Q: What sequence folds into this?
């Protein structure tokens, strides 16, 4: 016996369904639901199409949405000057400094733990973690990160492999 039959058996449901649908303002048949939704979609699509004829920002060309302007609003010369002043006044922030600041605030780096059976290398572990996050998060890659980050080498970013010919400190490494 199904759960729904414990609450309402088939005969009772057939008897009371119309009243329940009426009370909830639901359609009685799926064809009516589909027809109603299709009609509503057609009505809204027609309204949108009609509104696009006078829209200064977008139109429909050959069945595709075409944007008429890059920005929604024209940028006045005063706003352009203000943007330049703000942009030149703000200090450049290096991404690793931003990650350190975020970590100081929320401590996300504590969530990174060594794999079971692996001892992490104590040499520059925090900077290496940040470099790995940047390398993977920006799609920069480990080779480029190892060449551009001060105090970080490509060798530090490569994952160690524990195998019969190597040790857990990474004397043998997987290629990138």
A:
């Amino acid at each position: 016996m199904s759960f729904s039959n414990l609450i309402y058996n088939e005969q009772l449901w057939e008897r009371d369904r119309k009243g329940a649908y009426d009370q909830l303002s639901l359609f009685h048949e799926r064809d009516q639901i589909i027809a109603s939704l299709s009609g509503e979609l057609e009505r809204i699509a027609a309204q949108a199409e009609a509104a696009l004829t006078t829209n200064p920002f977008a139109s429909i060309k050959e069945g595709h949405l075409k944007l008429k302007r890059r920005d929604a609003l024209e940028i006045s010369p005063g706003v352009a000057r203000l943007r330049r002043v703000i942009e030149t006044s703000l200090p450049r922030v290096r991404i690793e400094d931003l990650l350190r600041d975020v970590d100081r605030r929320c401590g996300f780096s504590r969530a990174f733990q060594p794999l079971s059976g692996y001892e992490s290398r104590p040499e520059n572990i925090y900077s290496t973690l940040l470099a790995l996050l940047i390398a993977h998060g920006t799609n920069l890659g480990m080779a480029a990160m190892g060449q551009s980050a001060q105090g970080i080498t490509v060798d530090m970013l490569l994952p160690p492999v524990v195998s019969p010919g190597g040790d857990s400190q990474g004397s043998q490494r997987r290629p990138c």
Remarks:
- The chain is about 50% helix and 5% strand.
- The longest strand covers residues 58-61.
- The CA atoms of residues 142 and 157 lie 6 Å apart.
- The chain has two domains: 3-67, 93-176.
